[in-house]
Write a structure and sequence with these properties.
CATH superfamily: Zn-dependent exopeptidases
Strand order of the largest sheet: 1-3-2-6-9-7-8
Structural class: alpha/beta
Low-confidence stretches: 292-297
Helix content: 25-40%
CATH class: Alpha Beta
Order of helices and strands: EEHHHHEHEEHEEHEHEEEH
Length: 297
Amino acid sequence: MIAGGYNETDNPPFRVLRPAQQRVPFIFNAPHSGRVYPLELRNASALTLHQLRRSEDVLVDRLFDSAVALGAPMLVAQFPRAWLDVNREPYELDPKLFAEKLPPHANARSMRVSGGLGTIPRLVAENTAIYREKPKLAEALHRIESVYRPYHDALRRLMALSVVEFGYGVLVDCHSMPSQGARNERSKRPDIIVGDRYGTSCHGDISRELISRFGKLGYSVVRNKPYAGGFITEHYGRPAKGLHAIQIEINRALYMNEATLEPTVGFEALRNDIASILADLVSLPDAQFDSAPIAAE
């Protein structure tokens, strides 16, 4: 048994969806679509389950699951982002959340921590506090050791196996975003944001392919603004070593009712479009990706 009532047999904290044989050097990751909410979180929170789910990337794993049929493994979180966020450094801990003093190796000053969105989030969407009372630091550290670290171990292993088999690996980090941005955002959010850490996390052809394919299907696409990619994209993207990482953000209004969190009629159409785009993406010529130089873009 591990943290939050998850266990390695009946209810694992994450799953790797594997094809019968990996046929392409791509790995897909859905770190924020987990929807198994631990009883400990629900009991400790003043929020309803519906409110807790406001930070969830609803059904993003299903939007991208065609990748498995194309021969790519997909890592899928079962645990919710409100409980643990693996798209953060392991110890981006919020001093406002805990009564105890943080360990000296904690990063308590990042912008994400300041916004209440550290490794153990203090807030969900719309700046709503998650907990009635401050949780124990020991419980937070247990989540990190028992779930965060095994999750990233699994992701590193998938990338390493891809490099051994194909000479390089491409990680596609799959997310969704609210249709309405923050107040300081001047324009309406696009349908798709492709994040490559301003050209540093992957070969430029990968970014250009995604932007082109979504655009040809009529979607509005922006690169890196306001989402250039989080910890996962930055940490795993090492193009000079044949390790590429790119983030895709999907506007939630395309496929779901943001008030009810239910899929709309647009869900299957978007899922089919994504399947078509992924089929083209994994067919890109691969010679230039093996130990490719970092793009100066």
